[in-house]
Amino acid sequence: MGWNNGNPIFDHMALKLKELGLDEKTRTEILATLVELLQDQDWDTGDESLADGLDDPAVVEAFRRHGIEVQDWMTDQAGSEEPGEEPPYEDPEEEQSQDIAH
Q1: Which of 11, 17, 41, 102 is in the most buried spot, having the most CB atoms within 10 Å?
Q2: SS3 helix, strand, coil % of the chain, rounded to 5?
Q3: How far apart are CA 29 and CA 19, in angstroms?
Q4: 6 burial class (0-12, 13-18, 19+ CB within 10 angstroms)?
Q5: At what angle do helices 6-19 and 24-40 cross, to 10 degrees?
């Protein structure tokens, strides 16, 4: 069984390195090392972090170096939400009760 807790570690690190203004080559090297370390801990949901980071060439290259490539499903969802955000939950019962009230 794999480990998915690597996602917030990777995602936060990728964002912080970008915020700090590090150049793409440096960010790629750091993130590729992080991918390797997390994979060694049985991280098996790195593709989700890649999907969230498609707008950052350093993220894409870091994963590519470890055999995780961009897949069609990643580009289909790109831009639909902010990275790391889930779509808002819509309660079907709440919607039905609003229809009745009007």
Answers
A1: 17
A2: 60, 0, 35
A3: 16
A4: buried
A5: 170
* One-letter amino acid of 82: E
Give the DSSP letter of residue 90: -
Joined together, the tokens standing for residue 98 give 């609003």
| Interior/surface letters 24-61, b for 16+ CB within 10 angstroms, e for the rest | eeebbebbbebbeebbeeebebbbbbbbbbbebebbbb
- Residue spans of alpha helices (H) in 20-55: 24-40, 46-52
| Inter-CA distances, 72 with 16, 69, 76, Å | 27, 10, 6
State residue 55's pLDDT score.
Answer: 92
Whole-angstrom Cα Rg for the chain: 17
Q: What is the pLDDT of residue 3?
A: 66
Q: What is the pLDDT of residues 49-65, one digit of tens each?
A: 988 888 999 999 999 99
What is the pTM assigned to this prediction? 0.69
Domain coordinates of the chain in residue numbers? 6-81
